[in-house]
Design brief:
Catalytic activity: [protein]-peptidylproline (omega=180) = [protein]-peptidylproline (omega=0)
Number of domains: 3
Keywords: Isomerase, Rotamase, Signal
Number of helices: 11
Radius of gyration: 35 Å
Distance between the termini: 55 Å
CATH architecture of the largest domain: Roll
InterPro entries: PPIase_dom_sf, PPIase_PpiC, PrsA_foldase, Trigger_fact/SurA_dom_sf
Oligomer: single chain
Structural class: alpha+beta
Protein name: Parvulin-like PPIase
Largest sheet: 4 strands, antiparallel
CATH class of the largest domain: Alpha Beta
Order of helices and strands: HHHHHHHEHEHHEEH
Organism: PS1 clade bacterium
């Protein structure tokens, strides 16, 4: 046995393997130790203080700073443990938050410089329908279940509508609306109802008009005409819209470039035997 050990000790390959295993083990040990080390340096403390100031508009005192650092340590330990346990794998919420964070980072790199007035005016002219105010109605209605009731109610209201709010049946939405566009009314009561109401004249009870809820007797109090927007009074709104549009374009281009850096392979499904 001693002779065998002496022979093995003289074999360079054995020593090479032993030293390699020792280095591998030491590296793994150092990596394990590194995952247990949490470094608190000055930039981190300054970041925590800046976050605190942004929320409270004042600097933290010594006790509050200790609590901020301890809170960071707690969060860092829990995050590392979650990663060690694989809790971040196949979690839909975490995947979405990470994807959103990358998008935010991409957006932060974009130029937010406003263009000159001429560029904004061109943007305004190209998107004029966004700023024009459509025709709107201020109107009211009384709701009933069927068409026959609605016809009788219309006749009664034409004679006297002093207590119109007490007529008909309870309705889950408002009985009266102010400056409502046809698009807004369509979302609320349906496209056919909105078209029928906007086709009516103001000043008298009209109908019956059917919606998805039932039948309505309608009175248009005021028809507010559409207006064409002017550039100067809303230039700040145009500037915000321009920045948002440019941000979306830049984000789309950044995504296009990022997408070209990845290859998607479709793995064929193996035939079942």
């Amino acid at each position: 046995m001693p002779h065998l050990l002496r022979k093995l000790a003289q074999d360079r390959l054995i020593w090479f393997v032993v030293v390699g295993l020792a280095l591998f083990g030491a590296d793994r040990l150092l990596q394990a130790r590194d995952t247990k080390v949490i470094s608190i340096d000055l930039p981190l403390v300054e970041k925590l203080v800046a976050q605190w100031e942004g929320q409270t508009q004042r600097r933290p005192n010594a006790r509050e700073l200790d609590a901020l650092i301890e809170g960071y340590i707690r969060e860092e330990i829990l995050v590392r443990e979650a990663a060690r346990l694989g809790l971040d794998t196949d979690d839909v919420i975490i995947r979405r938050r990470l994807a959103q964070k990358v998008e935010f980072m991409m957006a932060d790199d974009m130029d937010e410089t406003l263009p000159d007035e001429a560029v904004l005016k061109t943007f305004f002219d190209d998107n004029l329908e966004r700023y024009n105010a459509p025709e709107t109605l201020s109107w009211r209605h009384v709701f009933v279940d069927d068409e026959a009731q609605a016809k009788k109610l219309k006749t009664a209201l034409a004679k006297n509508d002093d207590n119109w709010q007490e007529r008909g049946q309870p309705f889950m939405l408002n009985r009266e609306f102010t400056r409502q566009s046809e698009t807004e009314l369509s979302r609320l009561m349906g496209t056919q109802f909105a078209a029928a109401v906007f086709a009516e004249k103001a000043g008298a009870w009209r109908g019956p008009v059917q919606s998805a809820f039932g039948w309505h007797v309608v009175k248009i109090d005021t028809r507010h005409q559409a207006t064409v927007a002017e550039f100067e009074p809303i230039i700040e709104r145009v500037a915000r819209d321009y920045q948002q549009a440019e941000r979306q374009k830049a984000l789309a281009e950044a995504w296009r470039i990022l997408r070209t850096q990845y290859e998607v392979k479709l793995v064929p499904v193996e035939d079942e035997q």
